[in-house]
Amino acid sequence: LDLAYFGSDFCGWQRQAQSKKPSVQKIVEDAMQDALGYAVNVRVAGRTDAGVHALGQIGRVRT
């Protein structure tokens, strides 16, 4: 995957149970699960912190 996003509304890339904002990872994985009909795991080359934008973040999908 080649990902780009505005990070202002996210707690960062990685899923975090205690965060008030969603993670980018959760949004991407949930959207892919809805589209494909089964759970996936998305891993990226580097994680972003809360509020950080990304352009060209590279990842892979595991089923």
Automatic annotation (TrEMBL):
Gene3D superfamilies: Pseudouridine synthase I, catalytic domain, N-terminal subdomain
Lineage: Eukaryota, Sar, Stramenopiles, Ochrophyta, Bacillariophyta
InterPro entries assigned to the protein according to its UniProt record, in alphabetical order: PsdUridine_synth_cat_dom_sf (IPR020103), PsdUridine_synth_TruA (IPR001406), PsdUridine_synth_TruA_a/b_dom (IPR020097), TruA/RsuA/RluB/E/F_N (IPR020094)
Superkingdom classification of source: Eukaryota
Domain Pseudouridine synthase I TruA alpha/beta per the UniProt entry, residue ranges: 4-58
Organism name: Phaeodactylum tricornutum (strain CCAP 1055/1)
Family statement drawn from the similarity comment of this UniProt entry: Belongs to the tRNA pseudouridine synthase TruA family.
Reaction equations catalysed: uridine(38/39/40) in tRNA = pseudouridine(38/39/40) in tRNA
Protein name per UniProt: tRNA pseudouridine synthase
GO biological process: tRNA pseudouridine synthesis
Enzyme class: isomerase
